[in-house]
Automatic annotation (TrEMBL):
<dbReference type="Pfam" id="PF22917">
    <property type="entry name" value="PRISE"/>
</dbReference>
<feature type="domain" description="PRISE-like Rossmann-fold">
    <location>
        <begin position="76"/>
        <end position="363"/>
    </location>
</feature>
<dbReference type="InterPro" id="IPR036291">
    <property type="entry name" value="NAD(P)-bd_dom_sf"/>
</dbReference>
<dbReference type="InterPro" id="IPR055222">
    <property type="entry name" value="PRISE-like_Rossmann-fold"/>
</dbReference>
<protein>
    <submittedName>
        <fullName>Nucleoside-diphosphate-sugar epimerase</fullName>
    </submittedName>
</protein>
Amino acid sequence: MTSAPLDLTSTSRTALVVGATGIGGSALVDQLVSEGWQVLALSRRPGAARDGVEWIPADLRSADDLRRALGTRHPTHVFFTAWARQATEQLNIEVNGGMVRDLLAALSHAPVEHVALVTGLKHYLGPFEAYGQGPIPETPFREDEPRLDAANFYYAQEDELFAAAARDGFTWSVHRSHTVIGHAVGNLMNMGLTLAVYASICRDLGLPFVFPGSETQWNGLTDMTDATILADQLVWAATHEAGRDEAFNVVNGDVFRWRSMWAQLADYFGLEPVGPGAEPQTLETQMAGMDDAWARIATEHGLVESNLSRLASWWHSDADLGRQIEVVADISKSRLAGFGTHHRTVDSFTALFDRYRADKLIPAA
């Protein structure tokens, strides 16, 4: 099944991108601007000025601030790409579900036609507190799997989306990504930049480039999501009939094994790849105490960011690469509905690394 695009002229399309400075949000803003949309970019702090983008600083955790920021705005499409990590899943539910609820309530006056929500594969794997520990669906994960019998802030976000759609009459889509890699700094979950920084430190200090994860991940099949793929699917769902009122997995379209990918990443940086040990040799352990080393590297190479904590999210990459289960998402649903964008994941990594070097986030070759 395929569908034609809806009749949307550039003058009638105003997108509100929530989390516009994050990995997915940044790529989405780029795509929307390139396609002629007017973009309202909401984030805690404004990004760089650019044509076609109006920055809206706002605190997503404050209903009052959202009403202040959005009370006079009239977006036709809303793309929610933000989240705020909390200490417990109950707090994740309260905070992240509340952000979706309060933002959509602040837009109840607006002519919103469609709202897209970005979540992820914790929909199938469970929350951080019980990640992959209970019964989970068989891979590849499919969108029609029932929810797990566990508290999950993704479910809370979906429920707030569905309730607002029923109240205000807009259509919706949910996009379940897997380990998004893209161009952003200061993001809590950026494996692309994390591995680039790790490799750069290994090269500078002559350290082995050790895979920090489990033997299961080293040998098993997996997949990932390029931020540009996510952006493309978000826009597709918002502008095609087949994307309305549906949930879609979103990954690059290829599958790979880390034992092969790790060798390709090592080759890019001129390193020798080393496989996993009997127990994961985590990045948090390997990179402990490297803040001063990175500050020196940044100074010597004229890099734009000397604060290691703004570049590397060791904990998140450790969580993904240390899993003891196979994680693969089925994307047949979106393919059959007409979404056909495809990337090779190794190309996603190397294109990112090239961009990081060009932007002086990591040392040049």
